[in-house]
Amino acid sequence: MSLPKTLAEDVAKNLVMVAKLLDDEPERAYGYSRVALRLASRVAAVREAAGFASYAVGKYAEALAEFRAARRMTGNSELWPVMADCERGMGRPERALAMAGEPEVQKLDRAGQVEMRMVAAGARRDMGQADAAVVTLQSPELASNSIQPWTARLRYAYADALLAVGREDEAREWFAKALEADQSGSTDASDRLAELDGVEFVDALDPEQAADDDVSQPVAETKAEESKVEESKVEESKVEESDAEESDVEEPETDDLPSDEDMVEPEADDAEDVEPVAEATSEGQAVKPDADGDDR
C-alpha cells in the first residue's frame, strides 16, 4: 500500500525512532509506534514495528494482535517464533509448544528455527519440564563451533537450562562458551559466570550504594562536630586552669577590711584644723629665709 509523500515521510520518521529507541528506551519506542499505527495501520511494516514495541514493554496480547495482522498482510512466517513467545508471555506455554510443531516452522530459515527451539524450551520450563527443556535445546546448531548472530543466546539458554536441573559444572562451561560468542553483549553471561564463581561486583553508580554513602556522610560530619566539641572542651579546660591559678593568689580577707561603718568622715572641726595646716605650710614656704637670712 502506497502513502502520500508527506504522510509517508511522517510514518517513516516514527518508524526510525521506534528502531532507534527499542532496546534502550522501549516505552518511548512504544509511543512512536502508536503514532505510526494511527497514521498508517494498513502498512505491514507499521504493524510489525508496533508489535515489537508492544512486545518490548510486555504488552503481549497487543503484540500478538499486531504480529498476526502483519503476517496476514505479508503471508510469510518469519514472525512465528515471536508470536509463540507472546503466547508464553500471556501464560499459555502449551499453545507456544503446539506452535513449535506446526508446519510454519519448516518455512523458517535457520535463525528462525533456532529461535523457535529456544521458545519451545522456555515453554517446557514454564510447564515444569526442566529436563525436557535441556533436551529441546540440544541440536547441531548448539554443537557447532561457528559463531552466528544467535549462537550466544542459544548457548546461554542451554546453560540456564542446565543450571535449572542442578548441572552446575556443565552450566558454567556453557556460560563461558556463551560469553565467548557474545560479541555484542546481548547476554549477561559474564555476570552469571561471576555468580557461579562466587565473585560479587559492586557498581560505583548503584543507587543503593549511593544511598549508603549518603547515610554515612552525616556520621563523618558528626565526627567532625564531635572533634570541634572536644577542642572546645580542651580550650575551656585551659581557661579554667588559668582561672584556678589566679585564684591561688591570696586576696585580702573581707574581715580585715574596714567596713563602711568604720570609715568615719572627719567632722567639720577636724576639717578646719586640717585646712590651716595646709595654709601654714604654704605660708611657711613663702616666708622661708634665704641663705643670707633676709626675709622675702
TrEMBL record:
Q: What is this protein called?
A: Tetratricopeptide repeat protein
Chain intervals for the UniProt region annotation (Disordered): 203-296
Which Gene3D superfamilies has this protein been placed in?
Tetratricopeptide repeat domain
Q: Where is the composition biased (Acidic residues)?
A: 203-215, 242-276
The biased composition feature labelled Basic and acidic residues covers 222-241
Which superkingdom? Answer: Bacteria
In this entry, which stretches build a coiled coil? none
